[in-house]
TrEMBL record:
Protein name: Magnesium-chelatase subunit ChlH
Record-annotated CobN/magnesium chelatase domain positions: 1-190
PANTHER family: MAGNESIUM-CHELATASE SUBUNIT CHLH, CHLOROPLASTIC
Organism domain of life: Eukaryota
Organism, scientific name: Forsythia ovata
InterPro entries found in the cross-reference section: CobN/Mg_chltase
Length: 236
């Protein structure tokens, strides 16, 4: 329910009905809650936590463990993040003068672009064109919170975009799993059982890195020559 509330902050959408001001703000606030490292954008909760000398991931973990200080801090950060963009945080709750202004500038530039997309209304025109058998511009069908570039709505959506795989989140999760696997193997045997396989696995996760384009689209991979060099020196 919490995930659905974040992804659909205003409930189900009615075709042709543009969002109200508060609905647009709710969408922007949820968009601002996500880190987007591929675009160099820090989330608003992360920026607010930094003003208090905390890492937002530590706050999340502490809150999940029931640590009262972190539960209360997360509540305050969440409330400050939800204020209607004119007063993103209260002087009484955070140290505004310590906020990273460059991170805020990048974030608000991104939110400004999101606002333009949220406010655009192309649905009825596209629906009319579809009924007339005319061409409708295609677009991905992901949710607008994680990927605001699916907006404006009114496109001929497709469920899966193979070029969007892997996502940065999936790549980061895979790296953690592989690092643990390699460490477990090392502690278990004190040496690599099959050196060539481990080098390939290690190289694939640490050197073969997708190059991201516009947030979600990998535009190739880097590190291939280094991988070939390591394999040649180790196996050959």
């Amino acid at each position: 329910m919490e995930i659905e509330s974040r992804l659909l902050p205003c409930g189900l959408h009615v075709i042709g009905k543009p969002p109200s001001a508060m609905e647009a703000v709710a969408t922007l606030v949820n968009s601002a809650a996500l880190n987007r490292p591929e675009d160099g954008i820090s989330s608003l909760p992360a920026i607010l936590a930094e003003t208090l000398g905390r890492d937002i991931e530590d706050v999340y973990m502490g809150s999940e463990k029931g640590i009262l200080r972190d539960v209360e801090l997360l509540r305050q950060i969440t409330e400050a993040s939800r204020e209607p963009l004119l007063h993103l945080w209260s002087e009484a709750r955070t140290r505004r003068d310590r906020a990273d202004r460059e991170k805020l500038r990048v974030l608000f530039k991104f939110l400004g672009e999101c606002l333009k997309r949220v406010g655009a209304d192309n649905e009825l025109r596209s629906l009319k064109q579809a009924l007339e058998g005319k061409y409708i511009k295609p677009g991905p069908g992901r949710d607008s919170i994680r990927n605001p570039k699916v907006l404006p709505t009114g496109k001929n959506i497709h469920a899966l975009d193979p070029q969007a795989i892997p996502t940065t989140a999936a790549l980061q999760s895979a790296k953690v799993v592989v690092d643990r696997l390699l460490e477990r193997q090392r502690l278990k045997t004190e040496e690599v059982r099959t050196l060539s396989e481990t080098v390939r696995l290690d190289a694939r996760t640490k050197l073969l890195n997708p190059k991201w384009y516009e947030g979600i689209l990998p535009s190739g991979y880097e590190g291939v020559r280094e991988i070939e060099k390591r394999l040649t020196n180790t196996v050959g």
